[in-house]
Amino acid sequence: MPRHSLEKVRAQLLRAGISPRHVNRYVRELRDHLTDLIARERATGLNEQQAEEKARALLGTDAQLVQAMIDRGAPRSLAAKAPWAVFGVLPLFVLIVTALLLGRWSYTLLFPYQQLSVSDIPESVRAISMASSFIGSFLIGPALAAICVVIALRQRLSSRWVWVGLAMIALVCGPFGVHVQFPTAESGASGGIRGSVLQAVFENDQINAAATLTLMAMRTIVLFAVSALAYRVFRQRVEGDRA
Amino acid sequence: MARDPNPNFMAGVPELMILRLLQQREMYGYELVQAIREQTCDVVSLGEGIAYTVLHALERDGALKSRRMKVEGRSRIYYSVTARGLKRYENLAGSWSTLAKAIQSVIKEDVHASAFT
């Protein structure tokens, strides 16, 4: 493997907004070419280091390789062309669609049992309903934030839209959560299944407004803090690797 | 002093050479760059890494197509010319022939003029 790994070329192209797919292919071909050049130079009697230096000079400087790719109009990624769409509109759209699908699915699943008492609702239905609640309440937000962070790091993006996206995901996902409240067994009443797409806290079958607002605020803060910290730490690591 | 592999008047030459050579057989990048060197006796030498930007641009325009092949344990991307590439080659070759003839006639006139002075 050549000592010159061409990682600087890769990083500069990604920061210039070139699509990662094209950058990866370009760098892979350059690396293969470099390997062939080194083998050729070694065959002429040069030692490993001399062969690598000559091969790298023949390939072109980092600046030439980067500029040539940009000048030839290599395709730019969507995240570079329209960061507002990738980090602003897309997470919101995914969240709305997920909320609608989970809400609809939960309604369809629970509707036949609406008039039954709690003891008549099968365990499997309760388990599926809980799984749906868990996905909606605890997985969607972190998953969307993680996807945003991965896209931003993969593209070496430092756009303010990444921060806007993370803040927006936290603001929307903090209060959001598929919540199903089954009637307590003691009450024995029928028709007590309640559902909401908000993180509601129930107390004696009533929503506790103060506890609900506190929970929403805490979820928002924790989600933003964790995702922002992860983005910052990994970005520093990526920048460190580049240097 | 090192020779500039891409002086201004060479614009369009890499495309022309690539489209011509790939009509003979499909090749991968390194093979193609060496073929250009050999066939032009090193008169035309592409910046070796820069050749890939030309190949990718031609592929985006539909003049070339590529496929990955494993040869001797190494995965290579082989390029070949498409019908659109052939048409593009004919246009480029025609333009270059006309240009070369025009320049040649100017150079000949210049040589004749200096002979009579």
Please give the share of residues in helix of chain A.
55-70%
> Class by helix and strand content of chain A?
mainly alpha
Separation of termini of chain A? 20 Å
What letter string, H or E per element, gives the SSE order of chain B?
HEHHEEH
Elements of chain A, N to C (H/E): HHHHHHHHEEEEH
Structural class of chain B: alpha+beta
Radius of gyration of chain B: 17 Å
The proportion of residues in beta strands of chain B is: 15-25%
Strand content of chain A: 5-15%
How many domains of chain A? The number is: 2
Q: Order of strands side by side in the largest beta sheet of chain B?
A: 1-3-2
Low-confidence parts of chain A, pLDDT < 50 over ≥5 residues? none
Strand order of the largest sheet of chain A: 1-2
What would you note in describing this structure?
The complex is a heterodimer of chains A (243) and B (117). With 243 residues, chain A is mainly α. Chain A is 69% helix and 6% strand. Chain A has nine helices and four strands; from the N terminus they run H-H-H-H-H-H-H-H-E-E-E-E-H. Chain A has helices at residues 7-15, 20-43, 48-59, 62-71, 78-81, 83-110, 123-154, 160-173, 209-242; strands spanning 176-181, 194-198, 202-203, 206-207. By secondary structure, chain B is of the alpha+beta class. Chain B contains four helices and three strands; from the N terminus they run αβααββα. Chain B has a three-stranded antiparallel beta sheet with strand order 1-3-2. In chain B, a hairpin with a 2-residue loop joins strand 2 and strand 3 (74-81). In chain B, helix 1 packs across helix 4 (83-116). The termini of chain B are far apart. The interface between A and B is medium-sized, with 21 and 17 residues.
